[in-house]
Write a structure and sequence with these properties.
Elements: E1 2-11, E2 14-20, H1 22-27, E3 33-37, E4 45-53, E5 58-64, H2 68-75, E6 81-82, E7 84-89, E8 100-106, H3 110-122, E9 126-133, H4 142-147, E10 151-156, E11 163-164, H5 167-176, E12 183-187, H6 190-202, E13 207-210, E14 226-229, E15 232-235, H7 236-239, E16 242-244, H8 250-257, H9 261-277
Parallel strand pairs: 8-9, 8-12, 9-10, 10-11, 12-13
Antiparallel strand pairs: 1-2, 1-6, 2-5, 3-4, 3-7, 4-5, 13-16, 14-15
Length: about 280
């Protein structure tokens, strides 16, 4: 069992949670993920590691309560225990030889982009962060992101906070202003990553994206998380989650992610009704 040490509600649907998991914390690296299960019979759900403290023996996760399992996890409190918390899984991010990096986060993707930027920044690499949100109320981790980079640009779809527009507009403006990036890291909704990769391909900037497709076991055995990269199928759980953004078939990724939308909706509604009745 894994005890919840800290819980913070970042907005109406996003939760920050620190979990006691010493073995995971000792081996965790940026870009890796865990798979949790709240109870017997529960789903196995992957979440990217947002932070880790080997001395404290803790791992931080940030998630949206959009599905049945995340709704159950979000209803838990400090002192409660999670049944399974397996990891670290996946291949750590590689940052060798970088000089200046643009880290792009979209919505909840900022929870994954933030530790990437923090690691780079702490290792002496110049970092610009561009964070995109629907509106002011959706903004999360602003202060944390600001401390993890040299410059933070916040974009909102409706212009209610920061600058009005998409993250691609903020990135292209920096590129046209003469900022030379050795790499762009994009993390967020698949369509956001698709358009960031399309933009950086025009400017021949190497681009890394972090993929979070449907996943079950996290060991490469089930094949549920397969993604097409460079015309070949890869498993996000063992070959990723980081991939070359210029090689990913984002359209196929979107189709696969929508495969079980109806079942997920019914399960989410049933879980929400159950939680309300308690």
């Amino acid at each position: 069992m894994f005890r919840i040490l800290e819980k913070r509600v970042l907005n109406e649907s996003t939760v920050y949670m620190t979990v006691e998991a010493p073995a995971v914390a000792r081996r965790a690296r940026p870009g890796q993920f865990i798979i949790f299960r709240t109870h017997e019979g529960g789903e196995r759900i992957p979440l990217t590691i947002a932070g880790y403290d080997a001395k404290q023996g803790s791992v931080t996760i940030i998630f949206q309560t959009v599905g049945a399992s995340t709704a159950i996890l979000g209803a838990m409190n400090e002192g409660d225990e999670i049944l399974d918390f397996v990891g670290p899984l996946g291949t750590p991010s590689e940052f060798e030889g970088e000089s200046r990096v643009a880290v792009i986060g979209g919505g909840l993707g900022c929870a994954i982009a933030w530790p990437q930027a923090k690691f780079l920044h702490e290792n002496g690499i110049a970092v610009d962060m561009i964070a995109g949100f629907r509106n002011k109320d959706a903004v999360i981790l602003e202060e944390e992101m600001r401390q993890a980079c040299d410059e933070l640009i916040i974009m909102t779809d409706d212009g209610s906070y920061g600058r009005h527009g998409l993250v691609t507009a903020g990135l292209e403006e920096r590129i046209k202003a003469g900022v030379r990036y050795s790499r762009v890291i994009a993390i967020g909704p698949p369509m956001m990553m698709k358009f960031v990769a399309a933009l950086t391909k025009q400017y021949e900037i190497p681009t890394t994206v972090s993929l979070n497709p449907i996943m079950i076991d996290g060991t490469g055995m089930c094949g549920g998380c397969r993604v097409k990269v460079g015309g070949e199928y890869k498993f996000a759980c063992v070959d990723g989650p980081d991939f070359d953004g210029h090689q990913v078939d984002f359209d196929e990724l979107v189709r696969r992610n929508r495969m079980y939308g109806e079942q997920e909706r019914h399960q989410r509604e049933a879980t929400c009704n159950l939680l309300k009745s308690k």
